[in-house]
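#struct-queue
[09:14] JT: dropping the first one here, sequence first, then the structure tokens:
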Amino acid sequence: MKLIYEKSIEGLSAIRMPRDTMDEMPELDPRLLREHPAQLPELPEGEVVRHYTALSRLNFSVDTHFYPLGSCTMKYNPRACEQVTTFSGLANLHPVWPQFLGGDMMTQGALEVLFNTERMLSDITGMAECTLQPMAGSHGELTGVMIMAAYHRDKGNKKTHIIIPDSAHGTNPASANIAGYEVITVPSGPDGMMDIAAFKQALNEETAGVMLTCPNTLGVFNSRIHEICDAVHAVDGLMYYDGANLNAILGRCKPGAMGFDVCHLNLHKTFGTPHGGGGPGAGPVGVTEKLRPYLPISRVERRTDGTFRLNYDEPKSIGYIAPFYGNFAVILRAYAYLLLLGHEGLREVSNLAVLNANYLQEKLRPYLAAVTEGRCMHECVFSGEPLKKHGLHTLDLAKGLIDRGCHPPTIYFPLNVPEAIMIEPTETESKATLDAFVEIMIDLIESAATHPEQLHDAPVTTPVGRLDEVAAAKMMDLVYTGEM
């Protein structure tokens, strides 16, 4: 198709379709045309705006409500970081453009952003190098396990399985399985950590590696992490760090220093980028020096003259795992976040995240069964078992929170905690917000004893009330009206 260039915007061409091509468009199939005009209401713009604004107010988000979704770190996204993505020199950049065009370095600014972000994340995690290509945390997990598998193949190691604790995120075993490994699950001990005796019994020469979250999903930091890493390395296994909970140790502790060989990060959890609606996300993966050759291509490198290029010449690479540079706009937001906070700011993030979680844990401990006896890290986990004596469950408490203007925390996860309630306040919430949440929780728990039917009926303030989730899953009414 013939293209014309209408005008230039800061050296970038805006492309449009010539008007005469509209005459070449094929006619629609008569079966697709309406027999009668659509019965659409005629409304003034003001009424339409009010309608959709009213609908938007029914949504729960971190901008409108407290959102203590455990294990997912739903922190506030700074508007300053959002603003950066609107800069024309970046917003109008297309990833397929060549690095050099007509003597102008078209994508050098973008490549520099990627290079600087990669170096910052490598420093934060104690890794030798990172790839920014994975487009979600789960995608980063799979990439990391693929790198582990490439390392073992290259060395001729016969490795058959990966060890994962029962408190792990569900994507851990899924990633290991997709990469071709058997998954061996190790139970947690009374302290909330992976049972060390069961772990050592499962460990052998065919162990490809261990996938751990540290601190783990119970909000517990594994004090025996060096012992675990040393044991895995003794059989030439690799340690994989699930970075979902990095918010707890940001600026304080590096996975590389703990003994991990590969880690993924969630920019949409830890570094202030959007998280919701299914994405887009970003799951960079960092590796130690011995795993560097297996990183995916392309890789951003800085030339001796200070310019940047994409390197595709890596014979041991696992290859392409995403198109172009990953989710560039998400990476850009994280870059702005890193520059905004700096090293001391990142350390303060972990300080406040841990402080807020422990504050909630101690305030709620008299009313719910806390999983940890001592201090927790970034999140606190309770069991809603005490509610059962009133004929209620954790789900009822969660639904009650909706009526009180709070998004429910994560429930029924981790799977090894009965009636689990996982709360992560993050560092961005004020003491006033936390106190209000505690007051609501206590009021709901106390009302469970006196008026349990109120929680059974919740929510009653939403357009849609309590759904029968079991029936919805078992008796789906799926109708296909199109033609095969």
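[09:21] JT: and here's the second one, same format:
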Amino acid sequence: MKRLLMLAAAVAAFTVQAQSFPGSKPITIVVPFSAGGPTDRVARDLAEALRKPLGGATVVVDNAAGAGGSIGANKVAKASPDGHTLLLHHIGMATMPTLVRNLPFKVETDFEYLGMVNDVPMTLIGKPGLPANNYKELAAWINENKNKVNLGNAGIGAASHLCGLMFQNALKIDMTTVPYKGTGPAMTDLLGGQIDLLCDQTTNTSGQIEAKKVKAYAVTTAKRLSTPALKDLPTLQESGLKGFEVTIWHGLYAPKGTPADVVAKLNTALKAALKDADFVKKQEGLGAVVVTDKRMESAEHKKFVADEIAKWSPVLKAAGVYAD
């Protein structure tokens, strides 16, 4: 009888918590990368858009970088499952199971999937003094120089690293890859001419392309983009790399065991945030596309990530790279 009473009390407590969520306690969105990067920018815009549908709750961003994004993800996986600690992660959720050895959590079972946020195209850009002025000339230049070409990235497991791997695989050419600790240092060295190429998210490259500080060659989407700064760029597919498509996406997660009612409230709030005019405008300005399809639903979000794990695992295993 005593155990039954304790169980009933616990259930009642969870019910009250769900009904009053989020209450006066702040909600923290953990970003598993450094401040100022593309994912951080998305998180801060999303935090602002979530406040109203969450009843004016305080929503803050906490940067916990390292180990291919697994440190921040683990922080959320181990957090109290009360809905007040969330994770905003990108395609790294699909690559960590292969990239990070001895991963301290399971991507597919240790989180509640709250819904997708956006899709972010990638752009292939070059240093200001690169002799190639279009993709055809770039391809010829790469073929002539091959492993002398320096291809930068923001670190193993970063979006720019994944895009670089796909690009080298498509060309069947090994370049000299130069990993950095974040997109900021990589872009700085590209602008300074220390590296030749970078394939990175439009959230990080659009401004530099628009200001004509870098040479822009192509986008990684199946179709051309409509963003003013990028609309004249061809796709890598139409440039000759058939089937080449890399889009970086972001999703929102809570620790496994978060009450179903709280998960439902967070999902409803996320859907409202994705329709927020200011949020959509900010994302469009960065070249990102806010999700409006069925991936906003928890189950579809989870299925999508599982499919992405299956897609990237063989690519990463073939490359033989690890984030730890």
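[09:30] RK: nice, looked through the second one.
[09:31] RK: The radius of gyration is 21 Å.
[09:31] JT: good to know. Confidence is low (pLDDT under 50) at residues 7-16.
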